[in-house]
Design brief:
Elements (H helix, E strand, L loop, with lengths): L6 H9 L3 H22 L5 H20 L10 H34 L13 H14 L1 H12 L4 H8 L4 H24 L3
């Protein structure tokens, strides 16, 4: 892709199968987006930023190939940043909702009872949860223990676990809950 290529020319070349321009766009603006994203979305971690950038480039490509995008009134970089920004906003908003829903579910389960050895009606569920927590890994185990067993606030967890900000703590808890849910779902699907 030469710097003289117009936006319309680049779109036409991509539509005609020239993936070199798309690869160039992806790698040229990626680092700049990550720098911009780090400043503007401090609660997003590196993986989320990479996902946002990849999703933006894929969406750009799909819009071109489906003839939904014929030309742009702005620079390609600006358009991709906008797509990635929307992805991050959606994902971060979703994480907050997911955290709140998962918190409510776990609070209803009363996680403290998972550590008891009593032989009662919930014994199977306790065993499943204990297995899932073991598979989850120590960092997530610790975060969930701080939140649900010790009932610490997000700020208290940030301090105790050494995180830079509360948004990172919230995003990490959300990721841990999502992983825990996936482990439990897989366990149920496979018959325990």
């Amino acid at each position: 892709m030469s710097t003289k290529d117009s936006t319309e020319e680049i779109i036409r070349k991509i539509r005609n199968g020239n993936s070199g321009d798309l690869d160039y766009i992806y790698s040229t603006y990626r680092k700049e987006f990550l720098t911009w994203g780090k400043k503007n979305f401090r609660e997003a971690d590196f993986d989320m930023m990479i996902d946002a950038w990849q999703n933006a480039v894929v969406a750009f490509y799909q819009q071109i190939m489906s003839n939904k995008l014929m030309f742009l009134t702005c620079e390609i970089k600006t358009y991709l940043f906008l797509l990635a920004k929307r992805y991050l906003q959606k994902e971060l908003g979703h994480n907050i909702k997911t955290i709140n829903l998962e918190l409510q579910k776990l609070e209803r389960m009363n996680i403290e009872t998972l550590e008891s050895d009593e032989d009662d009606f919930y014994d199977f569920e306790k065993k499943q949860m204990n297995i899932a927590m073991t598979l989850l890994g120590i960092p997530c185990q610790q975060l969930l223990k701080y939140k649900f067993v010790e009932d610490l606030s997000i700020e208290e967890i940030r301090i105790k676990a050494g995180y830079q900000n509360v948004n990172t703590v919230s995003a990490s808890i959300s990721r841990c809950l999502r992983t825990l849910k996936e482990i439990l779902t897989e366990s149920v699907k496979n018959g325990g």
